[in-house]
Design a protein that fits this description.
Blueprint (H helix, E strand, L loop, with lengths): L2 H18 L5 H25 L8 E9 L4 E7 L4 H17 L8 H20 L3 H10 L1 H11 L4 H30 L4 H6 L8 H15 L8 H8 L2 H26 L1 H27 L4 H20 L4 H32 L10 H4 L1 H14 L6 H14 L8 H27 L6 H4 L6 H19 L2 H25 L1
Antiparallel strand pairs: 1-2
């Protein structure tokens, strides 16, 4: 068993332990779940240590025949597109599991079992190199998330859970048809083999592109496929929102880079302007709708639609800066939004309301918490020196020189830049109304500042917010080889088309 398989399935060890521990105290169960997530994170660091930065191909490959008659393999591998996603997944899970320490009081054992199962699915999505295997992991992630929202969520949790499940499931069916078509045409479901033999389905690649794109667009979500997101976010428990923003939405952007671009390069070039337009609508729409929210969690949820519009614009710039910026911005959004949802969770646990008007003057009651929140807020709006700026700047650099967007690329960039300004408006407006001003509501005077566990989680988020902001080159080095190869591949298609 290779290191990647061990990393993927290690959380199952925690699941089995939790299943066996029927009469243990809640504290013991939480300890087992947290311990499992920490060891999984350490395993991902081992993978990082074994990973050769700068190499373009798949590394640490686990591959053997699985369902031989249909050409289906168990094929896992890691490269520059997935290495940061794996580290993000294990890091966010390690923080999300202890973040629900005091929030979850019912069916604790089942809750942590679903959390660890979700981790298996998410890691599998980023490592699977066989389309059939990828699809199994992709669909599998829906099940634990459905139960996490449906059992431990807010008042409308059942509606939100069913909407989340049906939306993402329906989109994936078109992708399944595309997977079956390509697998049968080529006699293999292995992604590297399909990329090598993509001439076999070149005549229908526009249809295949659309099938995959809809599945990933719903997951991202791109405007107009976004209506499931605010409900799912608002109703999910805090840790559920952290994972949803931190990792699950990235599965959509990852899918575009991993599958749509290398498998259907001509279609990617053809549809790039249309997707860039949808991305920019999402950037501006998400920001304007965020501004109108009265519920602070909904505001953060809509801001995700805006931020992920940037990631999509970067991907379909189809050049080195754009795609590298998009991958890094995916990581940045996972960290910053995950931290924001955690912050909302801390307030909600104490006050049991998320209405912005119920707060005000929180800085006076919780000075440490408020100061750390300010840094996270500034990172989310892209302040230079923090992680959000690096990703957004690189994406705008990529879109400005994007051949795929033609001679009008600068117009796309100009519209996208308004999203940075709007983000500053709604995030600072939210911060001012919640944290500044007089402490005039008696309920807010009783707020306690961060305890040790919450402080540790906040500082872990802030470490990467500042690290990526100040010294991003190490992160770019990890993906440089793979992305350069992908861009060269698409570039040859663009040249051939002219």
């Amino acid at each position: 068993m290779g290191i990647l398989s061990l990393l993927t399935f290690f959380p199952l060890a925690g699941v089995i332990l939790l299943l066996v521990m029927r009469n243990s105290s809640d504290t013991t169960l939480k300890g087992v779940a947290t311990g499992t997530s920490v060891v999984t994170f350490v395993l991902s660091l081992v993978v990082l240590g074994m990973y050769q930065a700068g190499e373009a191909g798949l590394q640490l490959v686990d591959r053997f025949s699985w369902i031989e008659a249909w050409g289906i393999e168990y094929h896992m591998g890691i490269d520059g597109i997935s290495i940061l996603m794996i580290l993000l997944t294990t890091f966010i899970m390690m923080l999300a599991i202890p973040s629900s320490w005091s929030a979850i009081t019912t069916q604790v054992r089942q809750y942590y079992i679903f959390m660890l199962l979700l981790e298996v699915g998410m890691i599998g999505v980023f490592l699977a190199q066989d389309l059939f295997l990828f699809y199994i992991f992709w669909e599998f992630t829906l099940v634990p998330m459905y139960f996490l929202i449906g059992i431990w969520g807010g008042q409308n949790r059942v509606y939100a859970a069913i909407k989340f499940f049906l939306y993402t499931m329906a989109g994936s069916l078109l992708m399944l048809l595309g997977i079956l078509y390509m697998g049968i045409t080529n006699g293999t479901f292995s992604v590297p083999d399909l990329i090598a033999g993509r001439a076999a389905f070149a005549d229908v690649q526009n249809w295949l592109f659309i099938g995959f794109a809809i599945a990933f667009a719903i997951k991202v979500p791109i405007f107009p496929f976004h209506s499931w997101l605010p409900d799912a976010h608002t109703e999910a428990p805090t840790a559920g929102s952290v994972i949803l923003a931190g990792v699950l939405l990235k599965m959509g952007t990852y899918g575009f880079i991993r599958f749509n671009l290398p498998l259907f390069p001509e279609a990617s070039v053809e549809y790039a302007p249309a997707i860039a337009v949808l991305a920019i609508i999402g950037i501006i729409y998400g920001a304007i709708v965020s501004f109108a929210q009265k519920d602070v969690k909904k505001l953060v949820a809509y801001s995700s639609i805006s931020h992920l519009g940037f990631v999509m614009l970067g991907i379909f710039s189809l050049n080195n800066q754009g795609i590298q910026g998009a991958i890094l911005q995916g990581v940045n959004h996972g960290i910053s939004s995950g931290a924001l949802f955690f912050i909302v969770g801390i307030l909600y646990e104490q006050r049991h309301t998320r209405e912005i008007k119920e707060y005000g003057g929180v800085w006076k009651a919780m000075p440490v918490f408020s100061a750390l929140t300010l840094i996270v807020t500034l990172s989310s709006m892209g302040l230079p020196g923090l992680n959000g700026f690096v990703g957004e700047f690189t994406i705008l650099l990529g879109s400005m020189g994007a051949e795929s967007l033609g001679s009008t690329a600068w117009i796309y960039t100009a519209f996208a830049t308004t999203g940075v300004i709007l983000a500053a408006v709604y995030l600072l407006w939210m911060f001012q109304r919640v944290f500044m001003g007089p402490l005039d509501k008696p309920a807010n005077e009783k707020l306690r500042d961060l305890n040790g566990r919450e402080l540790a989680i906040m500082l872990a988020f802030l470490l990467f917010i500042i690290w990526i902001g100040v010294a991003p080159s190490g992160y770019f080095n990890l993906m440089d080889g793979t992305v350069s190869k992908l861009v060269a591949d698409i570039g040859s298609v663009i040249l051939a088309g002219h």
